[in-house]
Predict the 3D structure of the following.
Amino acid sequence: MFGTEVVLALNLLLFLHVVAQFGVNGEHKWPVPYRRFDRRPDVDSYCEALYPFCPTGDPDGRIPYMRDSDTVSVYRLQTPVWEFKYGSLLGKFHIMHDAIGFSSAETGANYTMEWYELFQLGNCTFPHLRPDMCAPFWCNQGAACFFEGIDDLHWSQNGTLEKIGEITGRQFNDMARWVREDNETGIYYETWTVRSDPSPNTTVWFESYDCSQFVHRTYRKLTELGAKLSSRSQTNYTKIYLYSGEPTFLGNDSAIFGQPALKNLALDIRKFYHTFRPHQSFADAIFSLLEAFEKVVLERSFYLYYNFEYWHLPMKPPYVQITYEEVPLP
């Protein structure tokens, strides 16, 4: 009897999951909501960062307390991705990283706050294929980093360092509490925004969850707390789009990998991601680029990992696009 009850409970949970995904009328809700968690899980030791995450920030993510009477300046920060290594190169393609700066009038201390990948962008965008595991292995956590100081040259030389408003110390402390909660519940990085076409009335299938989205959420929260934010220049941000027809839900790791009936699907997903594996030689990378073109453009197929579940995207022209588009301050 106990075994029967367990089976019924599992079937009920699966049914509720499907209802949540597709709605009561069987139609999917777009865009798919980003899944939040009760807490941030421990990092798997297999995941390694080429550059350590938040090296000068507090190890526990603590944010300094400001006196309620303090006046805190808010700065919009933007610079080319990996500017410290490649200078302005990626900025020429409008591939930018975003952050927020703060400056206390009472103490004179400056701070930088940003949200980015724990193990670099490539690991968040594509998985590792481990020989000891059937399912692809992902190192896709992202998190907030708060540290003292604003590197003026880093942000202003090839990007933006602009004061956009002032808040009170109390508003800053309220924002800090929200950041801790947001950081504990939004744990994974998502590179892609997926939509049906480039037109203004497009259907968005999936939203990205990256550095700029964190900045937008923080600006909205500051506005809710009473801040007035304004910029003298156009506030543009990087978006990386995939274009596809309506996605097909495939399932999570346990539903796909190790299931004899879905062996071909599992093999096809692994083959797809093998094209984008890390640490390739130059010759292998050229061959993989041709394989990616064949899969994405000629076969019009892409496997997306979102909310720890797999989706199939029937790709459409223009397939992939990087834009630098305006998102006004709230």
In short: Residues 71-326 form one domain.
